């Protein structure tokens, strides 16, 4: 851009009493600059639209709006809108509740199964270990917000529950050896279990038949001429009821793939 072509480089109004003319706005100063703004916004010039310059400026401003980046170790302490957390490459948002106020992932608290040998920085192993409340305040607040904190006596492996250890640490769920069951609705009832609750294994009701090998015949036994059954072969067989005696494994399970149990911070 260039200054207007006047001795002092400024605009001047005309003066009728002296006959001085006002500053003439030249095409070199004005037209190309304005056209450059409109076209720079990716818009085509429209002679019938006298508001294109404003529209172009608004569009350019919106194009320049970007999410601010922060380190996970130096998150803002007040709401500045969605932020990009560089180490985890995630957009985190501001949360405010009775148990936590600050930035955390919208996936905070969600369980996941991972094929990675070691967890990413935004994941924790869900194997029942304990972590610092100060290090993971967002996750601890989330657990309380969701009503998933139980006493140590009521904590059970396989449930999505947490425990306040009483020493500024909290215990994580142990989700190993678990299958996900959406909604938790039992097939034999209409009742959905509470989210995060566990369920023991079970074997569906079934029946095994009794089988036998051998042959039988009736023959006369004794001088009295009485007739009694007499086994001519060997009787063998079994009845197992629920089938527990017939399994070769210690668990009932479908075909499955092993993953590491983790939880999002």
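Sequence proposed for the structure above (265 residues):
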């Amino acid at each position: 851009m260039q200054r207007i072509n006047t001795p002092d480089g400024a605009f001047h109004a005309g003066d009728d009493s002296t006959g001085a003319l006002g500053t003439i706005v030249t095409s070199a100063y004005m037209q190309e600059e304005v056209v450059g703004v409109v076209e720079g916004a990716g818009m085509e010039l429209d002679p019938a639209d006298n508001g294109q310059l404003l529209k172009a400026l608004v569009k350019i401003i919106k194009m320049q709006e970007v999410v601010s980046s922060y380190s996970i170790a130096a998150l803002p302490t007040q709401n500045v809108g969605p932020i990009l957390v560089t180490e985890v490459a995630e957009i985190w948002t501001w949360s405010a509740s009775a148990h936590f106020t600050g930035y955390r992932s919208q996936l905070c608290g969600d369980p996941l199964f991972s094929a990675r040998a070691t967890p990413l920085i935004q994941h924790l192993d869900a194997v029942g270990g304990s972590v610092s409340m100060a290090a993971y305040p967002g996750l601890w607040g989330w657990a309380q917000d969701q009503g998933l904190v139980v006493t140590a006596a009521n904590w059970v492996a396989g449930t999505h529950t947490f425990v306040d250890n009483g020493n500024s640490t909290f215990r994580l769920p142990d989700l190993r050896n678990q299958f996900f069951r959406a909604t938790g609705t039992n097939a034999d009832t209409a009742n959905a279990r509470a989210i995060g609750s566990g369920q023991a294994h079970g074997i569906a009701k079934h029946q095994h038949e009794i089988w036998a090998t051998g042959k039988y015949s009736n023959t006369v036994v004794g001088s009295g001429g009485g007739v009694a059954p007499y086994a001519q072969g060997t009787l063998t067989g079994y009845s197992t009821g629920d089938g527990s005696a017939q399994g070769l494994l210690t668990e009932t399970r479908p075909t499955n793939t092993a993953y590491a149990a983790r939880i999002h911070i």
